[in-house]
Amino acid sequence: MPKRKTEVMESFGPRLARLRKAAGYTQVELAAELSITQRMVAYYEAPEANPPAHLLPRLTQALGISVDVLLGLAHPRRPKKLAVNRLERQLIEIEKLDPKAKRQITQLLDTFIEREKLKQRVRAQQTA
What we know:
Blueprint: H1 12-22, H2 27-34, H3 38-44, H4 56-63, H5 67-71, H6 86-95, H7 99-127
Helix pairs in contact: 2-3
């Protein structure tokens, strides 16, 4: 009789850590997104820990995955574009806003960027 290859299922904590990193979150950023402490995220990523059931939908939404993927019942699909950091996640959220709100945010960003460029030019002239 041939031997069957059995797949060892990854425990929840290490899977959560891997999925969090793949989504571009630090523990601190994910904790802020979930309105919990970084210490709780670290606890949930421990090999023997499991988060409470009410947190699962929030985790899947933050990480952009299904509950099946979070629980290890399915493999993650190739994401269209995963945000690597907080700024990229914010830009993705801005893209979902209505045109008027996007225009206002863009104007605010333009103003801030121009101000910073001006500061850099002034500093460069002072040191020259």
